[in-house]
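Notes, p. 3: input format for complexes.
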Amino acid sequence: MKIVIFGPPGSGKGTYASRLMKRLGIPHISTGDLVREEIRNQTALGKTVEKYSSSGTLVPDEVITEMLKKRIGPELSRGFILEGYPRTVSQAKELNKITKIDAVVNLNVPDSVIVDRLSARLQCKACGAIYNERTLKPKVAGKCDKCGGELFRRVDDQPEVIRERLRVYREASEPVVDFYRARSLLKDIRNEDPNVDPEQVVDQIMKLI
Ligand code: ADP
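Output follows (209 residues plus adenosine-5'-diphosphate):
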């Protein structure tokens, strides 16, 4: 099965995609994680994409598409959960050329919940697991429940960068919703309660796909 998880920053894409990966037994591919990995390793590509990522703007389509193609190639036969791509209509068209998608899960979350959630988000340096200082606390403060890794706050989770990411989402990414709706692939999930158990949302997604 080939699934795209789509939604604004902070809508829970990564949280649900990693849980879906366990239930479906197919890999989770996150272009945001690919970008952060290049930056962490300070590769030439990492240096190019860092300025976009830290300011909340989009990496150019050609650059991110090349990164995706490298990662997705080996998974095309067994399927995947793709998160963070496509983010523009041009990327959606590129993805169409690479492979046929079975379903696009569209997460609908109000801006107030997004800002609240992102400003309290923590992530594990070692395994990438996501926590929240208010709603999804780790058992031991600052440490990952799963692997004991150190938790950190993303540089793009500051209020002014969050606002820019939301603006970019409305302008560049929202048209992707119409692209997939027109192709009858869109599955809408409404998530207005910031305290809902992520597993319940994953149950809803499982019923839709
Ligand atoms: P968010 O939490 O805002 O959804 P991600 O973790 O998915 O963020 O991505 C982090 C950053 O990586 C983005 O702000 C952007 O700079 C870059 N990025 C990730 N995926 C894409 C993409 N498909 N197109 C362009 N830029 C991307």
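Residues 9, 31-32, 35, 52-53, 56, 58-59, 64, 84-85, 87, 91, 156, 165 surround adenosine-5'-diphosphate (CB under 6 Å).
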